[in-house]
Description:
This protein is of the alpha/beta class. The protein has helices spanning 42-50, 72-82, 98-109, 115-120, 136-148, 166-183; strands spanning 2-11, 16-26, 31-35, 57-62, 65-66, 83-87, 154-158, 186-191, 202-207, 210-216.
Amino acid sequence: MITAENVTKCYDNGKTQxxxxxxxxxxxxxxxxxxxxxxxxxxxxxxxxxGLEKADGGKITANGFVLTEMHEKALTAxxxxxxxxxFQQYYLLPHLDVxxxxxxxxxxxxxxxxxxxxxxxxxxxxxxxxxxxxxGGEQQRVxxxxxxxxxxxxLFLDEPTGALDEATGRxxxxxxxKEKARLGFTxxxxxxxxxxxxxxxxxxGMNSGRITEISANAEKKTAYExxx
Length: 228
């Protein structure tokens, strides 16, 4: 479970307040989408909830750890063991092939075997290809495999389909949801695409650093049923 209580975050020596007293609760195994325009604070919230950045005020608890009370070394260990990230930018190492890029994720958490993830994501035929030889969808699948190879209990996604065309975006979302069903991790995604919210358990709306709305989907759609 992830909880946030009155979380604040500022930049520019306190001149720019990005999070203004955010409170929420995310259940274990849930899929939560955070919606908001650019500058609403959604990516900063994701970074704070994942331990990637430290909040200035309030309290964040994840997997039983109080992140707001942990020093940087402990936060790094927490992320390494429990957290996976998938971003809009692929951040693959260009000099490494698919297998070695995926192994980076597994090695971070001491997971020796990532063949199951590679097979699940249909990357067996691309193991020795380098990023420049892959399509955008294939590169994003490598990112997914790298994140999941460490068997995270928490997966954070920042606009994972933002750089993809519709067909590839739907394919990538479908892969992610299948792996979520198989592995059971908690998933938090920030996005501009309101249609993706139809796939989530819970939808959080943000504006100007505050949560403006929290809603639940009684019926959830698949990646191929949502609008685009």
